[in-house]
Amino acid sequence: MSPLDLRSFSFYQLLEMDGCTRCGECVAWCPTFAEKPELEAITPLRKIETVAGMVHRQHRLLDRLLGRRRPPDPETLKTHSAGTYDCTLCGRCGVVCPVHIQTRSLWIAMRESLVQQGVYPETLDRLRETVTTRYNISGDDNANRLIWSQNLPKVPAGVGGKEQAEVVYFVGCVSSFYPQSYSIPQSMVQVLEHAAVDFLTLGGQEWCCGFPLMIAGMGDAAVEIARHNVEAVRRTGAKYLVAACPSCYHTWKHEYEPMLHQPLGFEVLHATELLEQIVDRLHLQPLEETVTYHDPCDLGRTSGIYEAPRNVIRAIPGLRFVEMEHHHEYSLCCGGGGDVEMADKDLSVAVAASRVAQAAATEAKILLSACQQCVRTLAGAARREKLRVRTMDVVELVARQLAE
Amino acid sequence: MDYEGIFWILHLPLMVVFLIGMTDVAGVWLRGRIGGGTDAPVGQKLLTLLGDALRTILSWRLPYLIKAFITEAWFNRRLWRANRFRWASHFLLLSGFLLLMSLSGISAIADKVLHKLFHLGNLPWVAMWYTPDHPVPALLNEIGATMMTVGLLFFIVRRYLIRPPQLRSGPTDHWMVIGLGLILLTGWIAEVVRLCIGIPEGSAPYLAFIGYPLSLLFRGLPLPWEALAKGLWTGHGLLTSVVIVTIPYSKFMHVIAGGLSATVDQFQQETAHSAKGAAHVPA
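Output (structure tokens, whole complex):
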């Protein structure tokens, strides 16, 4: 077992781990621990305690003087790995931590160190292989990225027909290749067309943003992908890139520039931010219905966007909007993030069930979100729990309410 | 040799050990990445950090830093939102500690520097800080000690009696209770014994609203109060020094590391450039 390389962590993260008091506030808010209480290693508290212990035993003078210096114990590492990869990276723990530990980035750093030490789920090797050779997460032929557009009654010129535009609509892997999510890009391009936005999609030139690799602790493998994607957008002369997927949005907005050490040269928006700006000219038809909204973790807590989707929803006349018990920065995760679905599908399902139960408690007929992964995960949970609530993306609802 | 001499002979080496421990801890932190680079030497990383800190302190952002410290590290808004009883325990312990440490520091500066070095002891606002039982420090010290004691009692009740399910208690938690408890207990006993010596003219020991009434209960006993007081205060001081030595390797470290992380994170949030809705997409 190789020693722990502290370069996986930043100065600040090592300091944060020594600031943890193990008060357990994070435990009370952790959605995966709530569903898997037998695995103490899932708790943020134990993850920090384990890694801090390894750091101390390998690198501290006191531990050397006391003869406690030793490399990580394999069984401890294995348990720690299970706990670390059973995390959806929702970031709820970071919001409630009394000493403001930035937990999400700390968990990713822990995953990087586990990858370095070779202790991580084997499925992630297949993920890395797929993303770096097929340029998407599903392993499909990347040239088929516009397959979702085939059912459109009229395919806008921006979908495969332009090489230059003001706005690039970055569709994302899930919306491109998972049929149950096709309606999201279909709706998005209809809305953009209706609002006369000059846009295009990259088609086969769109590669996976690299987010699944970054959160798996394999961020190094995403650098070439990032470079390709940025060049592909620059060639279009676009001033804006819009992503409907919060994970893609976050990666473009916050990860690409530090990764490539250069400015992008264009603005990055989430789809709801764009919709918020153009919703007044869409003249949406009224809908008498009760709706609720699920804050995607990567849009809300990670990227700080809470009001844009709500403003878009409230712009639809007649809608009655009800918040769930946990919303905004306290929103409960849908269970679909953090690569947990790959590592532990049952856990992902259990977390989703808790969230749809909160939605059902609002008596809303429509559960909205702004993330295709959240919509997919929550729709599956609603079906399994036999709940009479329809799940859809905000952009889908907007498209439905467009005036003729 | 007098008690004060014994105190300094033992206290100073202990403080050196404490500094070695802090250097050890900071040395581990400095092995982490700073600014995205992975292989910069430790000295360069330290200079980068110090440069960033100075640029912040000497800039328009200093008020944000102070505000972040006050709201997140000291008053801890997140604890307030989580649980009021827990918040009260933490606030009382921390504030009482800050008050007592400040008073000790002010007393030492007033006595050793302003009085003995610069001969300013004739100034009332200097002399008051080292005059035994002057009303102001007497009251403030009593308040500080009481706050810490009540805060520690709240801590013990919550952790060992109420025992919320989120808590996991271990040796590091028990050491915190024992260490703080012994310091407070010896401090109270030393103070009561000192008040049993007698009341100097012009002082107002009755403002020590717990220590003074307790001293009235024991004053009549035929004990060498003066020698006891000196010994107990020296013991109390050295016990505090021993606990300080353990800071880098104990849960007490959260006072420094946790305070820093809370302050810096809040500061970054408040001064970060917001890019929400920045772009306006034309038709």
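The radius of gyration of chain B is 23 Å.
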